[in-house]
Amino acid sequence: MHWQTRRFCIDLTRPRVMGIVNVTPDSFSDGGCHDDVRAAIAHCESLVAEGADILDIGGESTRPGAQRVDAETEWSRIDKVVAAAVTLGVPVSVDTCKPDVMRRALDAGADVINDVQALRQAGALSVVAGSGAGVCLMHMRGEPDSMMGLAAYDDVLSEVAAFLEQRAQAALEAGIDGRRIALDPGYGFAKSAEHNLRLLAGQKRLAELGYPLLVGWSRKRTLGEITGRPVDQRLAASLAAALRAVNAGAKVLRVHDVAATVDALKVWNAVDAATIPAVD
Ligand code: HH2
């Protein structure tokens, strides 16, 4: 299995790590840590040194209740960071919902568009279609300031699966080759802790939709609810969730803590490599 992006065809026969670079003042776990250009570029370099397979750069927080910013502000936060990141030898993803920001990111050489709104803004499908970029289509409802009021499902797994299939179909119809598409259940987006856990328990079904599955559990609130830990003490919980997600078919892990996740996957892969094939 592969994920075709602009410059790189990413081999997903082993799980990959996408390192998060939030160039924002208000992200839920690292807001303000990398919000000047030099700090953000240094962060990109250290994540690559730690073993990140992909970088995901964002200029707008999507945490519940986050303040929306306009395209100009969002792009001005990340433009120099994207330009520097594309020289680092790994695929660069840009986390945005706005077609204007997508267009500029692609002009600057981005390889992937990661859209938490699954290319639903007017013009987004065509910007991505014409670019050759990879795309991540994520499930959410509403906007960050309204989404938690929309966390009501009869059957969360079936509803998320139906939404992702429908968005993948819209992408295909817009001319995006299926090999460029990855799907994401959107853990924490318009979902309670119970919804997130049900989705993870049934995630194999999403992995069987025919596209690589990308997931983001890193430091999220559900992990705090389970462990009672604040956001800066959720590494162990994040690793546990990441490995459960890999066990249920995830191929790309979107994480803040790259070095620790790379180590966890090294152990995972070592066991896979030692597995004795069944003799029939
Ligand atoms: N989660 C966040 C942002 N973007 N993209 C995908 N595909 N999947 C996710 O689960 C996901 C995402 C939220 O995390 P973070 O970027 O750390 O926080 P913030 O949105 O506050 O910047």
How would you describe this protein?
The protein has 280 residues and is α/β, with parallel strands linked by helices. It has a single domain (15-269), classed as Dihydropteroate synthase-like (TIM Barrel). 40% of the residues lie in helices and 16% in strands. It has ten helices and ten strands. The protein has helices spanning 37-50, 71-85, 99-107, 124-129, 156-173, 193-201, 204-207, 221-227, 235-247, 258-274, and strands spanning 2-4, 9-11, 16-22, 54-58, 92-95, 112-115, 134-138, 181-184, 213-215, 250-255. The strands form two sheets. The protein has an eight-stranded parallel sheet. A two-stranded antiparallel sheet has the order 1-2. Strand 1 and strand 2 form a beta hairpin. Helix 2 packs parallel to helix 3. The longest helix is centred in the middle third of the chain and has 18 residues, at 156-173. The protein is globular. The two termini are 25 Å apart. The model has no long low-confidence stretch (mean pLDDT 96). The structure holds 6-hydroxymethylpterin-diphosphate. 6-hydroxymethylpterin-diphosphate binds next to strand 3 and strand 7.
